[in-house]
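Field reference: "sequence" (input) and "structure" (output). Example, Putative gluconeogenesis factor:
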Amino acid sequence: MRPVHQPPAIVALGGGHGLFATLSAARRLSRDVTAVVTVADDGGSSGRLRAELGVIPPGDLRMALAALAADDPEVQDWTDTIQHRFGGIGALAGHSVGNLILAGLTEVLGDPVAALDELARLLRINGRVLPMSPIALDIEADVQGLEADPRVSRCIRGQVAVATTPGKVRRVRLLPANPPACPDAVRAIDVADMVVLGPGSWFSSVIPHVLVPELLDTLIATAARKVLVLNLAPEPGETAGFSTERHLHVLSQHAPELTVDFVVVDSGSVPPGREREHLARAAGQFQARVVYADVSEHGTHTHHAGKLASVLEQLWSDPDAGSRGSEVAGTPEERESASWQ
């Protein structure tokens, strides 16, 4: 592990907008950032390309590339282009340009990781974007509340179906079971200084990472400082009605041997009192310290990149900055970040 006076090698795991927020924060702290991205999306442009071409779904990978792209003006045009989504009603309607580029590069180069590295080179990314598995995966969930008897579970399949179910998700699985991990992702976690899991769609973007056996084994064994970032609020569908502590319980149920060092919680989402006591006990399942901080965009359920970066920087440079259940003190950088809103 690098000395704390040097920027850490950071690995961020997740998918979608949650991972975009983490990467936007991590890149402020270090030039050595690796994204490990879920590959179970079966909706929209990603789902169509997956079904038609047999590629791993590119949408979340594209968003991670955009989050880490260089700020140079000439690169910004490319970033805007890969994020551009075609309109109209024809065959291209709804497709993102970046999804098509990744699908094409994968066919030309014969390897999704090589395709990601090539597009990362074009975007002048210092780190890497990697899939959590080299093959496309499916999510299957046990859901209660869809039958007349609320105690009866129904099995539903597909990331979109899980994310939008009106029932209560109890457990998720990956298909095929025990899928392979991307070897480069395993190596990145193994040598990382800091690993960040979450925020994001809990059952479809966060928990899938611990369902890939080799990824979980490496997460358990790594000497990296491990940080779990909780969502700012329950999501309609898969975590509707969940308390903050419930998010920890279900993650622990899926990965009972996983430990983390810190659980980052937005101080405004969990007021002082009994709920924080319950959360501290739930974090004990991971042997983790709960750290409260203002990490939200004002008036939204979105993480603020500058505020989250400030917290991650403190947890790297001064891991004792937040004692169990306490607030992380605001730094000048965090206060400056707040003024950007």
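Confidence is low (pLDDT under 50) at residues 331-341.
Residues 234 and 240 are 5 Å apart (CA to CA).
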